[in-house]
Amino acid sequence: MHMNKAIYILILMLAIPLAGCTRADQMKAQAHETEAAASVDQRYALPDMKLKLPPDLQLARETDHYYLIQNADGEVFGEILSDEYSETYDYSRVKPNHSSMTAEEQVKLPIGDCRLITLDADNGSAASGRTGTHDQYYAIVTVKDAKVYILNFTRHNKALETKQEFIKILESMEVEVS
After folding, report:
1. What is the CA radius of gyration of the chain?
2. Strand, helix or coil for residue 72
3. Which of 29, 68, 78, 81 is deepest in the core (most CB within 10 A)?
4. Cβ contacts of residue 153 below 8 Å, gap of 6+?
């Protein structure tokens, strides 16, 4: 009986955190999977990627394969993840809950092809106090035969300027491919 109770408690301890996974949790988990898979091979690490962010934002490194885009107060406006090259990268592994795709387009960038996805996403949980929806942009940037970058960005609004700002960030990307 003690063994069954211990197993039950262990299962509950593992299940509770998984039930509330957010997009950031999903991307961080994907980054850690990538980190583990590439622990010897750093071909998919982010330090070889550079981009220009608006003056109010900065990069915060979580792992070699996962960065946050945030302001000086730590408020997160986006994330960057790198992964192994794939022409048909399945971004659904990192797509946020409570969102639906409203647009998808192909964008040519200096470093490669980009699949730009616009999501209509909830502004937050009831506890957050935010109501309504906002646009969230995902870019799957493919550097042929090298790696895939997955970036997302939002200003928690539906302003066209936010999409244009994100495209400008994407166009500024530079990568050293070895």
Report:
1. 18
2. coil
3. 81
4. 69, 77, 78, 136, 137, 139, 162, 165, 166, 169
Q: Please provide the size of the chain in residues.
A: 178
Beta bridge partners of 12: none
Q: What is the pLDDT of residue 2?
A: 46
Q: How many angstroms separate the CA atoms of 2 and 8, rounded?
A: 10
**Token duo for residue 111:** 């470093």
What number of CA atoms fall less than 13 Å from residue 62's CA on the CB side?
A: 23
49-67 pLDDT tens trace? 899 999 999 999 998 889 9
Q: Low-confidence residues of the chain, pLDDT below 70?
A: 1-44, 93-95, 97-98, 123-132, 177-178
State how far the Cα of 62 lies from the Cα of 71, in Å rounded to an integer.
Answer: 15
